[in-house]
Structures are given as C-alpha cells and as structure tokens.
Amino acid sequence: MKKREALEKFVEQLKNKKMFSSILISNDNQETLNDFANNLSRTIFCENLSIEKDSCDNCKRFENKSLSNFVVLGDGSLAINKNDVVELMQKFSLTTNEVNKFKVYVLSNAENLKNESANSLLKFIEEPPENTIAILLTKNKSQVLPTIKSRCKLIVLENENQDESPKNIIEELLEKDKNSILLANADLKKIDKSELIAMLEVAYNRTIIKKYLNLAEATLQLINDLKFTFQTNLAIDVFLIHISEVM
C-alpha cells in the first residue's frame, strides 16, 4: 500500500471513530517506517485531522516534541527491554492532561522485543488504556511474534522510490577475496552497533537475498546476535569466517 493511501484510510477511521488500537507497519527501509509513523502520529493529534502539516496548536506541539501523550520506544536497531515497556505502560495508564484525548506510542521495532518485553507488551495491546493507539514498526514481519502480529492491523508499505544509494561496507565485502574478508573484522568492530545492524539489514534486503542466498541465514544470525547478545566481536568473527568459506 502506498503511504498516502494508508494515511487516508487511517484518517477515515479516525473520522468515523473506528480507529484501530494497534497497528503493525511493515517495510524494509527504516527511514520509510520512521517517516510514516511520524506522519500518522501527527495526523492523529492534529485538530483538523490533516495529513499535511497545518498551523493547529497540536501540530506545532508535535513538531516541537512537547506533547506528553506521545512516546517513541526503541531506535529501530537494538533490543527493547522489559523495563522500557513497563515504564511506557505505567505512563500511559495515567490520565492525560492533554486537550487531545489520544495517547500514541511508536515501537521501533517490533522484531527487537526480547521475550519478556514482548509478553509485557502483549498484555498492553490486548487491554489498552482508553484512546491509546500503538504503532508498531517492523522491517521483517516474519520475525514479529505471531501473538503480537495477530492482534495488530497489518499495513505493508510499498517502496515508492528505488534505493540508489551506493553499496555499504557489507555489500562491498561480498565482492572481496577470502583474505580481505577476514581482515575486515577490525573495521567492522569499530562501527557503532546500531549502525552495523542497519548496514546488515540493508545488505540483506537489497543484495544478499537476491544474489547470495547462501549467506542469508548467517546474516540474520549476526543481526540477532548484535541485538540480543553481548558477544558482538565473536559474532562478527563467526560471520566473516562463514562468508570466507562459502564465497
């Protein structure tokens, strides 16, 4: 579904007072997900339910990040812990003083939930406080727990613009010889964990599943290890050794 079409459908739901309490937005590009979640959230708070930014007080406050009943949880890459979810639940269980009755939280991303945090969130989705809207994002809907996915309205966004950005370091690595691949471990270990996860996910969706399917499982394993374990250096070593053996 195109972004504009999805926004128009949600506006219609809001006007008819039939808005979904939990939505799962899927796309393989984090920037697309963040942009859509931001636009949808602002529209929900807008006094005129305008898809375009207008001059209403709520839109201004949303842009200034001064709305107390709007929360973004997660950075799209690293694991989301139970404490983060519990803190969100406690905050949203309180009565809001805002003029707009809605409370909106964006979870970035649903596949990054640890088991304990997923179980806590599941309860919150099943029995949300009044006028609470959950916008869950995912770059891989197959990795979202079925119990959470089944309780959300799933929207799969189309990629409207072909990604023409240059190859990242992971994609370049796939074209190198065995020694160069193994020597890359020092460079990869210097990269910020969130940034490395983002690179791996781009490489997976844009290149690996199309040209190097034999590396798909190892790539997903490294992404998972970077998100949920502390042995990142070892995980990188194992990944590079695997690449060097199969390429």
UniProtKB/TrEMBL annotation:
Biological processes, Gene Ontology terms: DNA-templated DNA replication
Any Pfam family matching the protein: DNA_pol3_delta2
Matching SUPFAM superfamilies: P-loop containing nucleoside triphosphate hydrolases
Domain of life: Bacteria
InterPro entries: DNA_Rep/Repair_Clamp_Loader, P-loop_NTPase
PANTHER family in the cross-refs: DNA POLYMERASE III SUBUNIT DELTA, REPLICATION FACTOR C / DNA POLYMERASE III GAMMA-TAU SUBUNIT
Protein name as it appears in the record: DNA polymerase III delta prime subunit
Organism: Mesoplasma florum (Acholeplasma florum)
Taxonomic lineage from the root: Bacteria, Bacillati, Mycoplasmatota, Mollicutes, Entomoplasmatales
